[in-house]
Amino acid sequence: MHMADALLSPPVGAVMLAAGAAAIGVSVKKTGSGGLDEKKIPMMGVMGAFVFAGQMINFTIPGTGSSGHIGGGVLLAAVLGPFPAFITLASVLLIQCLFFADGGLLAYGCNVINMAAASCLLAFPFIYKPIAAKKLNKKTITLASILAVVIGLQLGAFGVVLETLVSGVTELPFGTFVLLMQPIHLAIGLVEGIVTAAVLCFVYGVRPELLEAEVSGSKGKGVRIGAVIAVFALLSAFAAGGLSIFASSNPDGLEWAMEKTAGTAELEREGPVFRAAAETVEKTALLPGYALKNGAGSGGETALAGIAGSLITVILAGGAGLLIHRARKRKASV
């Protein structure tokens, strides 16, 4: 559901960039004031890499000609907490934009709000947490995961429709576009919800106290997470370097809805803002479209992009957690 720049007007893009930046700022402050456990820092990097790899694996939605991939927000929030999860997912989206030209630079704020804020800051605390907090077990984890993911994705999909409407994208009339966006993302959300539930049930079986800490609001200090980090690091490498090669080639939910509505998934926009954004991404994207520049887009290139992106995510998301932790320690020592 990564939006391209052509789906927005410059004013709407600017407002959403400001909103995304504000949400990141608040999350950094909340994460710091909440006393980010030092053990959670590597978790931010590894879980971010896992979500990055997972987003590369598009799964087919039967009978539609469309595909989808996990968003990962609820999964991250259940393990890391909502604010560290938001920072982690915002890092993933930034890497996808700048290094892989996946999602526009002008649209980065929209993607942060639609994909990260809707799941981490709304669906998790208001849907997942109340359900799981009543009695945390695999049944409540499954129910909470599916409902939170579905509702979070519905909010994000509706956000896309509203943003194109306000931007005056006449090729995507509201009535038709919303009637296609919501049902296809309902189907995608159901699949992602099941995947999220399966992953969280695994974590619960290995380290239940890790999920209990986020549901109860405790800091989770003393939780042994070395084995969890190792497992997710291996899963990230396997997904990014192996499973990503077999991802569905069908258009994702947003592209599918655009094709059904406008007859194309690639709208064109002219103007200095769009050119500047495109030129910036062209310079920074080392592997545009998850392939080598002027490459053949082979499975090997996809695997390379997956591994590279996962490693960059570990550095950026983990580095963000480390900086927040150190800043808090310095402030406390003053």
Task: Provide an overview of this structure.
The chain has 334 residues and is mainly alpha-helical. The protein has one domain: Arp2/3 complex 21 kDa subunit ARPC3, CATH 1.10.1760. The protein has 12 helices and 2 strands, in the order H-H-E-E-H-H-H-H-H-H-H-H-H-H. It has a two-stranded antiparallel ribbon. The N and C termini lie far apart (44 Å).
Give the arrangement of secondary structure elements.
Blueprint: H1 10-33, H2 40-55, E1 59-61, E2 66-68, H3 73-80, H4 82-100, H5 108-134, H6 138-166, H7 174-206, H8 208-216, H9 226-241, H10 253-262, H11 272-284, H12 299-333
Antiparallel strand pairs: 1-2
Helix pairs in contact: 1-4, 1-5, 1-12, 2-4, 2-9, 2-12, 3-4, 3-5, 3-7, 3-8, 4-5, 4-11, 4-12, 5-6, 5-8, 6-7, 7-8, 7-10, 9-12
